[in-house]
Every structure is written in structure tokens, then in C-alpha cells.
């Protein structure tokens, strides 16, 4: 045993040395192979020396051996048995060393080099671009909205001298397959798809942020990913750490890019703002979606209006525009110069407030910093006329003439199926509606004791909220029937954030919705049903759903995209989703007139006289286009067609 070990030790040392050279990369591998070729050529030349003539030197024999080693075509030119034997051995070695190993090493090196390029490790050389930090469920909708909507392209071009927006996506894993899959999902024309550039890395790494030219970007978007609530390291923690990293880099250069930051928990807002010294629009998912859910639970069909307004591809949405051309005019005077768009109001960036173009605010003199808010079908409709449409006449809104907000004087029954961290916030937002009272039944397989503890963290509710906690599985028809869903006024079905993936969470919600449909199918009077989904891949479900359907990542993607283009959009939507203050309402024509049919221009005047602004109509009978905004002046609105007026006004 000892003799064998002693005999193999030198061989093992040589193998170890060769191994260490080979693992150093293609350059060292080539060096080893070249050394082997040189060694074989030397040996071949030495084997030929005994039969060589006096005119041939050792160098000539070595060159003869090298030629046979590298080119098999010389094999038939040799004469003599020994010369042919050596030539044959050299040719076989050439197949292995030169044509096999050497070509393989060079091929592997070329493939590795191309794969390295595909990973996007080279820093980009662009400016005024939009950076998306991290791949999430928001990524595809954001890219579609920023590049696939003409109105958004026009907004970006206006601010950056006609330059097309370039989107740099920072993802943990980048290769040709990931790139092609992303392009297939966004489904944009090739001209626009070329504006999407992928780079590999994490937002926590300084090198990765440098790779995407983060400090030279027009805006940087940090989105959240789907994550279980029991995770110790939440997405908010990673987001705040990324903010600290960006802040350190920005301090070194003195240039702070504008950030659009999505958080899950509102309690992390102050910490996030403290982590970054530049301008940062912090959007809290739980707060935003909870407000929207509460508002849409109180007002049926309002979600369809918000979905229409947030969807940038819709005809009729909010547009924000600088007020330079109207500086010195009042808001009412500026309104006369726009006949193709509805001037809804203005945003004061200094006070972070949105005001309607009504009453005293209509007499506000526009300054350079003001942002005008319009409802229009496209960006071209924002162009002002050379002369006013008509003479200025302020609408008189007499005291007590504002239409009262419709509400049920009795207590509404709310059946809330499922549980996630957002449920306590939803109930808290419902409690802010002073004219509403709710008997809330919370049904979930989650422990009632733990749910009670989570709800208690927000403090005590008013006597307008009465909560009952029940443990049951909403996927089981027999268990749901005991809560009498047919007698409820509102049913809210939310996805669970305790499951491993968004697919699993949505699967339970969709099955639960089918169970509800089966129960309610036999009843003529049905409650107002809202469901929440967590996967934007279920966007097609919106077209088929008879209920109000929230797809949280999709709604947040629309909002984040619009804030990235115009940060004042956050002020607008924050104002609209609060329980008090300015809100969007659905009203009947009978609330303003005894006539059953009126022209759009006449309705607008009636609504404004009541202290509100007319935006459009909602027709529940129309499956394809139930929401129509910024109507032509001559379009007729009829109560017989079940048209509801979409108006905006101050809440009571």
C-alpha cells in the first residue's frame, strides 16, 4: 500500500497542478493545451531524429511533427515504416489536442463570453431614462403603460425634448431566455420593445445601481413583490435598504434622482422618507387599496370608473399639465380656453392640495407652479384655443343646493370572506364614512383570536362598526350558506397572503366566487359583490366578471406609472380616495332635473350649478364600454337608458 502511494504521489501533484491551471479560465486552458502541443511536437521530432538525414536538424523534425499534429492532410506524404508510424500517432494526437480540445476550449470561451454579455453587466450609457428596480408582478403592466400608451409617450416627450422613454430593468437573473419571455409578455411592437434594456443585479448592490445609471434617470421605480405575511424579511425592509444605498451614491455625486417607492405597510412611510434625502413619492399599497375598496364598497360600480381612469389606454382619463400658458388668469378663465377637455381643477404643489374648479377656487389666479387637471380622451385635447369659447360667468351654487350623498340610513350588512393584512385597514376606512354604518362578519379559516389582535392594533372603532369573527372555509358551500349571503348588502372576497404564491391565492378566491354565484343564482335581489385578486395574469377575468374585481398589482402598476411621469398624480388620487373631501360620485339625472333626457352640455351646466363637475356617464347595460368620459356636447343622456352621471364634488 505504501509503495503504491509513493508511486502515485508525483502523478497526483502533476494532476493537481494541471487542474489548478484549467480552473483559472479559458486563457490558462489555452496555455496548457499549447504546452501539450509543443511537448508532443518535441517528442515527435525527437522520435524522427534516428532516421533523419544529415541535412535535417532537430528543429526541422519538430516542425515536421507540428505539421502532422495540426493538419491530417500530410499523413499520405510520408514514406518509410517508422516515419508513417510516428506520423499516424501524431495525427491521432492532433485530432484530440488541436482539433478537439483546442476548438472546444475556444468555443466554450466564446459561449461564456456571450452569456456574460447577455447578463447585462455592462453599465448603460443613457440619461433621462426610467429605471425599474426588481422584477415583480408590477413590471409588465408598468412597461406596457409607459411604452404602449401614446398619451404617456407624449407626456415623456414633452418633458424631455421629444425623447422616447428608455426603460432599464434591473433583475436578479438576466439572460436571452428571460429577455425573450419579457418581450413576449409585454407584447409591444419591435420599435418600442427595443426601448427595454435588462441589467442583472439587485437594488441592494451599489454596482448594480451604477450599472443602470440610477443617478442619471428621470425617475426610479421600486416595486413590491408578492410575499407571505409570516416572512421575517419583508419587501419593505429590502426597499428601505435600497433607499439607503441609493442615498449614499447620490450624496457622493450631489445628484438625487426622483424615486417612486411602493411600500406595503403605512408604518414604514416615515422611515422610507427619512432614508432618502431627495424627492420620493411613497405609495403605500395597503392604504391605497384599502381606501379604494372601502369607497367602492359604499358606492357600487365606482370601481369600474376608477379602473377606467387609471387605465392609461382608456378613452377618457385624467391628464395633468403645467399652467404656464394660463399664468395670471383665473381657473374659470382658463376653463374657457378648453373646449375639447374638461378642466376639473388644479393642484398646488406647494401645499400638496388638489382643488376643484368651483366656487372660490374657480377665482384662484394661476401661478407658474400650478398643475391643471383635465379629463380628456387624448393628450392633443389639452391644447388651448386662441380665444375663449364663451364669456365668463361663474356658476351660482346656492347654499343647500348641493346634491346630498346617497346612503342607506340603516345599517348595512357586510360579509367579508378571507383574510389578509389589509382587512383591518379596510374596516378602518369604512369607519371614516360618517353617514354609513356596518355590521361586519369576518369569515376565515385563520384563527379568530389572532384576527382580533390584528384589528385591535388600529384602536377602537366607532359604534357605526359592529364586528363578528367567524371561522369557516368560504370554498365550502355548506359553510357559507350559514351566513346567509343572500341577505347581505355587501360581500367582499379577498385573497390570502398566507399562501406561497399568487396563483394559489387567486385560485381560492376564484373558486370562492363560483361558490357565491351558485348560492346567489336563485335570488333575484343580489348583494354588491367585490373580489380581490393578486395576479395581473388574471386581467382577462375583468372582461368576464359580473362583480367588481380588484387586481391589486394591476391597479398599483397604473398608479406607479402615472406618478413616475407626473408626481402630482399622487396628490390627485390620494385626495379622491379619502372618505371626506373631494370624491367621484354616481348619480341619477333625476337628482338634478325632472326631465328624462338632456344633452350633455345642459347636464354639465345643471351639475355645476349644484356645486359639482360633470365628467361623463356610466351605463351598466353596456358590457364593452360602460364608462364614457368627456362626452360630446350634443350627446343625449337618458334615465330610460339607465344612464348614471359621473360627477366629482366635495363630500358632505
From TrEMBL:
| Family annotation (Gene3D superfamilies) | NAD(P)-binding Rossmann-like Domain (3.40.50.720)
TM regions (residue ranges): 26-48, 89-111
Endoplasmic reticulum found in the keyword field: no
Query: What InterPro entries does UniProt report for this protein, alphabetically?
Result: CASTOR/POLLUX/SYM8-like, CASTOR/POLLUX/SYM8_dom
Using the UniProt record, give the first listed, main subcellular location: membrane
Membrane topology listed for this record? Multi-pass membrane protein
* Domain of life from the UniProt record: Bacteria
Keyword terms of this UniProt record: Ion transport, Membrane, Transmembrane, Transmembrane helix, Transport
What sequence ranges are listed for the domain CASTOR/POLLUX/SYM8 ion channel conserved? 287-384
Name where it's found: Endomembrane system
Q: Which PANTHER family match?
A: ION CHANNEL POLLUX-RELATED
* Protein name according to UniProt: CASTOR/POLLUX/SYM8 ion channel conserved domain-containing protein
Q: Which organism is it from?
A: Catenovulum sediminis
Q: What is the lineage of its organism?
A: Bacteria, Pseudomonadati, Pseudomonadota, Gammaproteobacteria, Alteromonadales
